[in-house]
């Protein structure tokens, strides 16, 4: 035992490391030997690591059934050192850890190593079960709590922060918990806090290359070249070829949306270790985010060949296979990649919208991103999620990698779940704000501006004020602007992230209102110049973060003075006079007591005039007015919803119906056009809009809608094609109309309406008249 302890200390001294990097003096020779192999691996001496680990593995295979529980753990660790490119070694490692636990039920290290291996290989259910089993035996085990924190964080659950804090409290010296804390704070752009966590990790284990990498990443992101140099030098002392140092930097840069820097660091990591699955995956993913699909695929295929358990890489490769079936449309400044069965329909609407958005945003920000901008649309939300993070389960609707955008197609969600037009506008806005700031704008500013741009794009687009938001704000559960980044990455309750989007948009709205749109541009360029948030506020807004928070609070309370008096929070749930009135009004309506319902719902509307969410008072009041024959009153009410809510399918249908009955067929086209951005799959809505557009001589709109009907594979395709020919003829495009008719008559020679229109076109051509 003493010999093993001396050997460990000698190894640590040779490496210039703390003795924590090696085995304890009382450990068995096999534990000491595998620790030495791990030290060699950490130093980059893979040959020595493999040699030592192979000897342990061979001995275990020859007589491991007689080994102690601790020695079986050593065997499992050895197999992990041999696992690159070997799925069987991973399975043997897991079997060895399980055997160690079976040999000694009190050996929690064996159970934890098995759980950590399962988690690393994406077997989340079994990993969680194993961590839970450890906690039943040791309720405050720091490693088990950390494992559950990692699982919760991966799933985006708020309890991740609570579990991590419990782990840190249970074992303050646990390096891995400090590393997770540092990464979380780094993602929230809380650089000082992240650096402090990295330093605590170094204090626990000065040989931790990830700890030095996180300290280096924090220094690099804040422009501290001296600290960055010291961290890099420390990493090089641990490993002369510190691939993981640059891999950590690559991940940190990518989390901060600095994708070009992420690519650069990932390539440095790969240059130092060409067999690193982490580096290969980072380079491959970076290539995909830049739109270099085949280059990214090649890297990921190599990474997956080395580690076939990496679910991220597997899912992404499967998705790339699927993407090869997609149709690519290059037109103007955009490249649209969409499923072939939806490509024609979606590009018909999306391309003009994106061109409009590009021109609008370029004028507003005085910046023009490089083109073409690539946008990918996915029919399955799980595919979009894989494209974004490599795993299914992401709750977002879209994502911007700068010049590459990805989002759910409208078919990926139930009708009314989201507005795909505003989502596309939102993601393109990121291309401008990230480009202008060179990806240095903090998350709250970039997201806030994108939501604000949605509201500017169309009446009703973008998030609006909700009961839940006002209740959370009144209860102090929405963070002020200076702390909003944490609301995006360290949410304390399930809805905090979505509420943070809206809060951020209000902060941007207030800045524009009080300082001008130029201030928003100046903030983006100040971040581009490397200034911190306090420095940006001082330069552009002449305020400290605390002063801006106070200014925002006063502005918001003035803006929503009426509803804030009527919406409160009770036990975390919305309450107050408005909520009470709505519940009472709806109950009266459902009971058929219409007069009483109308009075109560009108009172509720006065308490919160801006509300246009689900079951808004205006929807009920519009239906009551319509049923009583008050069409004008019904229209006045329903437009309170359609001009404030971007997802209200039924409300827009009702508005169109009311306008037509009132003789405003031109006005009826507006809500029908809104429907196409909620869901473009309703044939009847397209046909109705086409008919109205034709009557108003808006030929381009009528043709677009007739083409949309045809793209949707309608029940009567001949009639749909005939109607398209009529719209083309009305526009004066006789050759195109004739082509459509000939296609109809080729399939149905006796189609009388088609024959008649074709004869009409010929006669008109002979006289030069328009049919």
How does this model look, in words?
Helix content is 70%, strand content 4%. Helix 6 packs parallel to helix 8 and helix 38 (717-731) packs antiparallel against helix 39 (734-747). 51% of the residues are buried. Among the domains are: 325-436, 3-Layer(aba) Sandwich (Glutaredoxin); 461-567, no CATH class; 682-771, Serine Threonine Protein Phosphatase 5, Tetratricopeptide repeat, CATH 1.25.40.10. The protein is mainly alpha-helical and 771 residues long. The longest helix is centred in the middle third of the chain and has 26 residues, at 340-365. It is built from 40 helices and seven strands. The strands form two sheets. It has a five-stranded mixed sheet with strand order 1-2-3-5-4. The protein has a two-stranded antiparallel ribbon with strand order 6-7. Strand 6 and strand 7 form a beta hairpin.
């Amino acid at each position: 035992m003493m010999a093993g302890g001396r050997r460990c200390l000698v190894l640590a001294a040779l490496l210039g490391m703390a003795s924590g990097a090696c085995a304890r003096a009382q450990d068995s020779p096999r534990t000491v030997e595998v620790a030495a192999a791990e030290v060699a691996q950490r130093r980059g001496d893979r040959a020595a690591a493999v040699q030592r680990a192979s000897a342990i593995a061979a001995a275990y295979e020859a007589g491991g059934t007689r080994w102690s529980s601790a020695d079986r753990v050593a065997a499992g660790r050895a197999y992990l050192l041999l696992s690159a490119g070997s799925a069987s070694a991973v399975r043997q490692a897991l079997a060895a850890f399980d055997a160690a636990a079976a040999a000694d039920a009190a050996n929690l290290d064996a159970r934890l190593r098995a759980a950590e291996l399962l988690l690393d290989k994406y077997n989340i259910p079994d990993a969680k079960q194993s961590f839970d089993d450890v906690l039943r035996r040791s309720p405050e085990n720091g490693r088990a709590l950390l494992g559950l924190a990692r699982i919760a964080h991966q799933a985006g659950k708020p309890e991740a922060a609570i579990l991590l804090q419990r782990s840190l409290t249970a074992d303050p010296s646990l390096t891995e918990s400090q590393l997770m804390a540092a990464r979380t704070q780094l993602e929230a752009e809380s650089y000082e806090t992240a650096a402090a966590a990295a330093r605590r990790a170094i204090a626990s284990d000065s040989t931790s290359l990830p700890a030095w990498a996180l300290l280096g990443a924090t220094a690099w992101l804040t422009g501290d070249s001296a600290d960055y140099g010291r961290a890099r030098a420390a990493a090089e002392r641990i490993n002369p070829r510190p691939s993981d140092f640059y891999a950590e930097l690559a991940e940190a840069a990518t989390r901060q949306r600095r994708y070009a820097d992420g690519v650069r660091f990932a390539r440095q990591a790969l240059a130092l270790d060409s067999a690193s699955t982490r580096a290969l995956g980072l380079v491959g993913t970076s290539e995909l985010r830049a739109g270099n699909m085949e280059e990214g695929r090649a890297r990921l295929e190599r990474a997956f060949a080395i580690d076939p358990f990496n679910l991220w890489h597997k899912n992404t490769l499967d998705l790339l296979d699927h993407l090869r079936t997609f149709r690519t449309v290059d037109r103007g400044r955009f490249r649209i990649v969409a499923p072939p069965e939806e490509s024609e329909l979606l590009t018909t609407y999306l391309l003009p919208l994106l061109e409009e958005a590009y021109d609008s945003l370029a004028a507003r920000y005085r910046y023009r991103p490089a083109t073409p901008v690539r946008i990918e649309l996915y029919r399955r939300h799980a595919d979009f999620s894989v494209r974004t993070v490599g795993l299914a389960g992401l709750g977002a609707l879209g994502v911007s990698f700068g010049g590459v955008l990805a989002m759910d197609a409208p078919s990926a969600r139930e009708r009314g779940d989201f507005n795909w037009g505003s989502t596309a506008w939102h993601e393109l806005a990121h291309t401008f704000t990230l480009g202008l700031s060179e990806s240095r704008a903090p998350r709250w500013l970039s997201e806030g501006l994108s939501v604000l741009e949605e509201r500017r794009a169309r009446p009703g687009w973008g998030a609006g004020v909700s009961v839940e938001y006002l209740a959370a704000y009144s209860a102090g559960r929405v963070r002020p602007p200076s702390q909003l980044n944490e609301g995006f990455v360290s949410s304390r309750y399930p809805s905090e992230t979505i509420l943070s989007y809206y809060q951020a948009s209000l902060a941007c709205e207030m800045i524009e209102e009080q300082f001008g749109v130029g201030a928003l541009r100046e903030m983006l360029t100040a971040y581009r110049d490397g200034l911190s948030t306090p420095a940006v506020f001082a330069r552009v807004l002449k305020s400290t973060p605390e002063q801006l928070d106070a200014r925002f609070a006063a502005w918001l309370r003035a803006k929503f003075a009426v509803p804030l008096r009527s919406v409160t929070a009770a036990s975390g749930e919305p309450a107050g006079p408005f909520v009470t009135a709505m519940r009472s009004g709806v109950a009266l309506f459902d009971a058929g007591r219409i007069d009483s319902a109308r009075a109560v719902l009108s009172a509720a509307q006065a308490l919160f005039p801006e509300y246009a969410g689900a079951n808004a008072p205006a929807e009920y009041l519009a239906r009551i007015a319509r049923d009583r024959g008050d069409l004008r009153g019904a229209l006045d009410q329903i437009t309170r919803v359609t001009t404030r809510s971007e997802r209200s399918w039924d409300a827009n249908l009702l508005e169109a119906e009311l306008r037509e009955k009132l003789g405003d067929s031109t006005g009826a086209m507006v809500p029908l056009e809104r429907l196409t951005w909620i869901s473009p799959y309703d044939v009847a809505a397209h046909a109705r809009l086409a008919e109205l557009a034709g009557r108003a001589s808006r030929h381009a709109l009528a043709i677009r809608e007739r083409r949309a009907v045809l793209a949707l594979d309608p029940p009567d395709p001949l009639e749909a094609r005939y109607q398209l020919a009529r719209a083309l003829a009305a526009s004066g495009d006789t050759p195109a109309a004739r082509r459509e008719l000939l296609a109809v008559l080729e399939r149905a020679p006796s189609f009388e309406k088609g024959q008649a229109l074709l004869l009409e076109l010929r006669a008109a051509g002979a006289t030069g008249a328009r049919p």
